[in-house]
Amino acid sequence: MVSIPECFSESYAEARTKFCGAAAAAGGALRSYFNPHAQGPDGGKLYLDTARFGAADAARMLVMISSTHGVEGHCGSGAQIAWLRTGGPAKLPKDTGALLVHAINPYGFAWTRRVNEDNVDLNRNFVDHDKGYPKNDGYLALADAILPKTWNKEELDSTQRVLDAYVQKNGAFALQGAITGGQYTHADGIFYGGSKPTWSNRTIRAIAREELSRAKRVGVIDYHTGLGPFGHGELICTVPPGAKSFARAKAWYGSEMTSPEGGTSTSAVVAGPMLDSFPQELPDAEVTSIAIEYGTYAVPDVLGAVRADNWLHQRGDLNSTLGRELKANMKERFFPAGDKWREMVWTRAEQTIGWTLKGLTSG
Ligand SMILES: [Zn+2]
What we know:
The chain is an alpha/beta fold. It contains 12 helices and 8 strands.
C-alpha cells in the first residue's frame, strides 16, 4: 500500500532523490538538466529532471510539470511521485506515453521561493521579449508599499494602509490583479516577468521540441498552489476563451474548468504563462493544457508571504530569526503541513490525470 503523504517531500533535495528513484523503479528514462546559474541554500547543485515513459514515437503524450513556482513544487513533485508509485506508467493507454518534468524551477524549490534565480516569476516570463511588455499601472502605484525599506510594525502598518486604500477604491480582486498580473518594471519586486527568457524557459522549450515533437496530441498539467479553497484543485485554462484549444480543454474537463479571462477563476489574468511554450514549440501537435491550482490559505496571507519573502531576499537577512520565520511561513502558505492536504492533492490529481488521458485518447 502506497503512503500518499510520504510521496511528498520537505526539501528539494529529498524530492529529487524520491522522484528519480520512483521514476527508475517504474522503468522510466531519466534525463537531468543542470542549472549553471544558481545553487541551493546548502551549496548543492540544482537540476531539472525529466522521466519519460512509453514508446519514443507515441502518438499521445501526457505531460506533468512541477515547480513552475519553485516552492509550489512540494505539491507537484508529490503528485508526480504518487503517480509513479501507484503504478501510473503501467496504466497508460495504448500508444500513449508520459513525460514528467520535475522541478522546472529548481532554485525556487530549493530556496522556498516562487521565483527563479533572477527573481523572475516563470509564469510571467513566457511573453515575447522583443515586443513591448504589458503595462501594469496598478503595480506601479503599489511598488513602494510592496517592498518596504524595513520589516517592522510601523512600516508594515503604513504600507498596509496603502494596500487597503487600493482595495477600498478598486476592490480586493483588483488588488490581486495589480499585484499578481505580472510586471516588467521592478526587477526587485514580486511577480516580475524578467527582461529575457530565463534558463527554465529556454530549457523547457528545448525539452518540448526534443521529447514531444513526434506526438500528435499532447495534454499538459502544470501544478500550482496558493489560490482557492484548502486542498481543492481548480483546473485553470490559461488560453483565451476564443482559442481552439480552449474548446478542447472544455470538452476534456467540462464545467470544472475555469478561465481567468472568462472571469470564472480565482486567478487574475496573467501575462506570459509557461504553458504557452508548448503550442509555440509544437506547431504540428494538438496541445491541450491546464494549470491545476490547489488552495491553501486566504489570498492576503499567501500574497503577504510572497511579499515578505521578496523583502527578505532584497533587504533582509536569511540567517536571522526573522528570516527563518518568514521562510517557514512561506513554505506553509504554499505547502500546508499534515496528511489531509496532501491526500486531497493526490485524489484530485489522479482524477485530473484520468480526464486528461481520456481526452487524449478520445475521438
Ligand atoms: Zn503557481
